[in-house]
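Per reviewer request, we include the raw input and output of the structure prediction for the construct analysed in the revised manuscript.
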Amino acid sequence: MSFISLDSINPPPGKPRPRPEWLKVRVPGGEKYDSLKTLMRSQALHTVCEEAKCPNIGECWGAGTATFLIMGDVCTRSCGFCDIKTGRPLPLDWEEPDRLAQAVKALNLRHVVITSVNRDERPDGGAPIFALCVQRIRQLHPGCSIELLIPDFKGSQAALQIVMDARPEILNHNVETVPRLFKKVQPQDRYEWAMATLGNAKKMAPTVLTKSGIMLGLGEQWDEVLAVMADLVACGVDILTIGQYLQPSKKHLPIEKYYHPREFEALRQAGYDMGFKWVESGPLVRSSYHAEQQVAALSTMSQSQS
């Protein structure tokens, strides 16, 4: 397997890279989009859809789904790809899980994705807030499946255990990039923490689906991507997402390459060949894209095999 030559899309360094047609998305809007935005503001909630400027916000919000961002909108880390603010966050809001659960019920969601900023000022990384969110949602809106997209908690097994004891349907932690680029892309993170988080999660709760994601376009090589995918399979990861990195602003890391949809398709097939149960791979794929379809399909598959 090798790269597809796309010199017209990826000119030599120093020349402008026009965004290809397959990366253009519609302007968000519509009744469901507006009502969801109003609800978020009324409950003092944040979404990663807004904070990270997700290109799928129009599609997802238009369908009445969103990924909630808990523990504030200020992160203790400064990743080169992320548009969430960096700084010293406010104290945790222990009433936030109740407000989030009320919003999930008001939206009548069948599947909810919950993620957070990093809270490195706390030894537990805010893990108890994740667990409380699961508890409150199951109390107020039973039947809704829950996906937790967690930080690495600096590799803390104690913090991870708090989350896994809550038994979400999906436990997600994105590896984001290849080991060679980790310090450039995620200077406060470690590849070993990411793999330990995913591997330990599967050991702590073997029936919980595990998930991870990779961004392309930051300077990685094809073989490096395949090697990361192999490492994720070795950690027991069930679901993989692969998408194109899009530079949020000029201060963020530049785009080194635009990948063609055919290349994403090649990686999708490679993922299935390696043993992943579900692979979402495409230019606009993000961690939460089609998340509700993943849990529904894999849960049905698991029940039919038992």
